[in-house]
Amino acid sequence: MNFFKLSFMNLRQNIRNYGMYIFSMVFSIVVFYNFITLMFSEQFRALQDLKVISTISMMCAMVLCLFFIFFISYSSSFFIEQRKKEFGIYTFMGVENNKIALLFAQEGLLIGIIALVVGIFGGILTNKLFLMALVKVSNINAIMKFEISTPAILVTSLMFLVILICVFIKEYIILLRTDITKLINATNIYQIDNSKNKTLQGLLGLIVIIFAYQLIIYYKKYNIQFPIAIIGTVVLVIIGTMLSFKGFFTFIISKLINNKNFLYKSTNVLSFNNIIFRIRDNNKVLGQITVLITCCLTCIIVSISMKTLFSEGQESEYPYSIMYLGDSNDTIVNQALTLSKEEVDFKFDTEVMLVETNENPNEMGPIPYTDDVDLIKYSSVEEICEYRNLENEKRFLDTKLKNNEAIFLIPKQLINAVNFNVKFKLGDKDISIIDSYTMNLFGTFREGKPIIIVNDDTYDSISKAFGSEKERVSCITLKNFENTANISKYIEDNSNIHVYSVDNFDKESYNFVNSIYFIGLFLSLVFIVSIGSIMYFKCISDASKDKPRFDTLRKIGTSQEYINKSIFKQVGIFFLLPGLVAIIHSIVAGYSVTSFFNQDGKISTLITILAFSLIYLIYYLVTAKKYINLTK
Question: Which residue, of 69, 418, 510, 628, has the greatest Cβ tally within 10 A?
Fold first, then answer.
């Protein structure tokens, strides 16, 4: 029997162990192929509104490529651990190490090729559905035809085969250098951490994580660009997480083991002793799982933010049905409303001043949007609050401005990337901005200008110097909010008033945002599947090592119920620790991303965490039951 046939026979005998791995790889390749087709599909690239998606899909493909490297390398290491005793027996029978290493590496390569072929085939079959869903979500009327992208097949195959061959060589070398005695006794070796206390490493990791949080939350204060802050935070969080688990996990478990009152309570003596035996591997895997969960949750939160940005697009640009400059009692406007027979929900007008803030740029600091801002008095914004529920309204009403103090309002559609707690000069007044946040007063009607709010006394003082710049903004909201086309046409045909009405809203300009939402959720599925796969591999690995110990416990009279409770607790620890740390990471990431898009991300972050927790709980129950079945 040649080595290829032997590899194929081994694969068929171990198909149950390889099943989850093959499924995960096939699913990931299907997703990767679909992302790559967005770069090469002529019919998709012909859609002008979604050209930016090709660039985003390339970035997603790069993320998946890095994931493939990690996942295949981790899975191969797992299968080596599982099969070491088998390979040791081959060695004992006289088979040379290089042939055993070739046998295993060939088997791994065969699995990868099978996953690649099935994944590409699955990608081809699902590609039309993927493109149709993407176009549908983007609200574009286009017919997507079935196509087979040869460039996408070549790129997917080349990328995946290069990774497989590199892992093939790596695992071949590892097995070639492994001692025969270690192979035969592989399942009896426990990787106890005998090194000195790692508390300092854990403390260093905690400091690095806190620094990463500071970097992404206060990047504006430190005048750091958001993309640079993101990259720095990701790197620091990964390093800090790995160090924290390496240090604090070891330290905490050791302390719990030494606490006799805790150790001999319920099933702790069995659960925690099993954990401490393989502490180094536990630290590494828990750190990796934490990073994957963080990626998954952050990806979903960003996707929901994109969806929110799309759904709030109309409101952010057109908070009222009609807006115009001039007298709110304008006769033509009233005639148009009467002829339309549309019922008015509310109508008001307010005064604003257009002022320049570049008189003293060194003191003002950077305002990246415009040199001009609208100045409005506090009482006018209070009046608007009576008609509308504004974002950050409570925060505004709780602030009582003193003379020469101001609030800087960032229009909803503008990205909040600068810290505005600065001072500047208006006329003879030194104005100090004490707070800055998003509040959508006029949408894009005033060309998206930021707004500065001052108290009424300060406004009146400044207006003496800028009296000629004052303008009156009139706002009308109809009961039938969007039915403004005839009204605006009548006004513009019969007067020189320029009407800013909601019927001019261009929904197509937000199509790409919805596409990002869809792609982000699609990518997060890969992380969800990979998390389940790695936990499953960890379950099989630990269960095979613990089975002899549980058999011994049953022989001396330990009940299966007691063993089951200890297993549920042991597996629960592995799930709980990375889940909690990742949720904390994702809360910080969600806050940073949603703040960048001027959104309140509390609800979306909470929904994401709850939904993932439910899936994570299912993973835990399935894994614990599988663990119990393997150790019976």
Answer: 510
